[in-house]
Amino acid sequence: MKMLRFERAWWTTLGLVGALGCSATQLGASDQNLASARQKSPPGAQVFERECAGCHGRKGEGLSTAPSVMGASALPTYPRDSSGSQGASTAAQPQNQEASRPAGAPSRPAFRNAQDLYEYLSQRMPLPQSRAGSLKPEEYWAVVNFMLVAHGTPVPEGGVTAENAKSVPIAGP
User: Fold this and answer.
1) Given this model, what pLDDT does residue 4 score?
2) Domain count of the chain?
3) From CA 114, how far away is CA 90, in angstroms rounded?
4) Which terminal residue of the chain has fewer beta carbons within 10 Å of its beta carbon, N or C?
């Protein structure tokens, strides 16, 4: 009987250690990507710190109800298409897309490229809603550049601009 209890306790401990190890996924930008982003877009780092970090965290990890905006769990396409197929649309597609959005995630258009991200930020951020769109266009572009580099997305030499934004895909996790 003692051996059975010991064995059960051992497996329980092993399971807890394994679960804790799996939950150690880094949230937000990696230190290396964050340092690179600060170097490549100092104005973006300053604007992000001033306007975004209060809700999204200094590494873009997400705080309270604000989502993560940089790193492995950030900037996903909603809905995620895990099937790999680009088949024809069906009448049920909008409901399926809504159901595939992670719980608590805001409804928003897909972020497929830097232009999508710029449009979203420049129309809906910073919050509260009364401040949305209040930054200068160059500040939004600076934040886009900072966020993408910190997220791990390669940006063109000279950065993302209105002229090349549609050609800069957002890297997935």
Assistant:
1) 45
2) 1
3) 28
4) N
62: its two tokens:
């997400």
What pTM did the predictor assign?
0.72
Question: 21 in a domain, yes or no?
Answer: no
Element (H, E) at 55: helix 53-56
Tokens of 35: 């340092």
Query: b/e per residue, 93-118, with b = 16+ CB within 10 A?
Result: eeeeeeeeeeeeeeeeebbebbbbbb
Residue 114 lies in a domain: yes
Q: At 47, which helix (H) or strand (E)?
A: helix 42-51
Using left for φ > 0, alpha for ψ between -120 and 50, and beta otherwise, residue 133 falls in: left
Residue 114: give the domain boundaries. 27-78+95-167
Whichever domain contains 69, its CATH number is: 1.10.760.10
The angle formed by the CA atoms of residues 108, 112 and 113, to the nearest 5 degrees, is: 115
